[in-house]
């Protein structure tokens, strides 16, 4: 879909390389400017999974000759992605003004936690810090327990990388229509707060409370996970009354006066305890067989390894083994076609000679 788009990515951590991986999954030519020596941060060494589908050139951005190579790359690029703290790129002489002077239609994508301005812009932080401040962490766990969401998904990926990609794609459309570049300020605090608007709409309608554990999606017995006799877990979320009725019927609880009062908040703790006791009486396989093929909205809570072998996930080819590493296929899909496996992640500097030769050829053509 993006085969005519070239993105230059400056090596960074977490959401920035995820965003450029997603663009590469969509067909963009992503060239990652790796440091000449590997990072000592766990998960950010050579041959990183998030570099799949990209090409790698190794440069030292403190060396004038290597800065000149990067600037030459930017003259032929559609977009740039950087994930440093505010001011770092400017100190390297690679801020938006300098880069847009090289390529006026460049989309300059900036990925940070706190944003390019504001009192905390210069501070360090991580996923939990950002979503804790933005409000997105508040409903992450049941009432009475410490909030803790799936690591990185709400902040780094949801509020960060995906919003950066949306911003870049929007700015690319503008650049093609007007020839004018754009600076995209993608901040995890902004994106993760924006992701809360569905819940905020429920709050405005009176269906969600500020106090945790008292709202339609974080308090009821029909909206939580339950452990089974084998220690495995089920997800239950039969919100609509028609689905809730099916849930009760499958469990033989129809006609129970307490369970029939689905939205009576005062009953939720006791009914949750009753369901917890019931589900621990049998294995997860038993309960999945009981609910199979129904609209009761009950399913397993799987690890990524188990998800890869699930019949539905396997039929869609969601999880793939590439280079001996389990990873999810590109998403979304187009025209009903399954995504093709991404090309392997490059090693640091693997394409340096190839990219330099391309630049030399471009210079010769001029």
Q: What's this model, at a glance?
A:
By secondary structure, the chain is α/β, with parallel strands linked by helices. The chain has helices at residues 15-25, 64-75, 88-91, 96-102, 127-134, 153-178, 188-194, 197-204, 241-251, 268-279, 284-291, 304-309, 311-316, 352-365; strands at residues 6-10, 29-34, 55-58, 79-82, 107-112, 182-187, 223-227, 233-237, 298-300, 319-322, 325-328.
Describe, in plain words, how this protein is organized in 3D.
It contains 14 helices and eleven strands. With 366 residues, it is of the alpha/beta class. It has two domains: 6-195 and 337-365, Rossmann fold (3-Layer(aba) Sandwich); 223-311, formyl-coa transferase, domain 3. The strands form three sheets. Strands 3-2-1-4-5-6 form a six-stranded parallel β-sheet, with helices on both faces. The two termini are 29 Å apart.
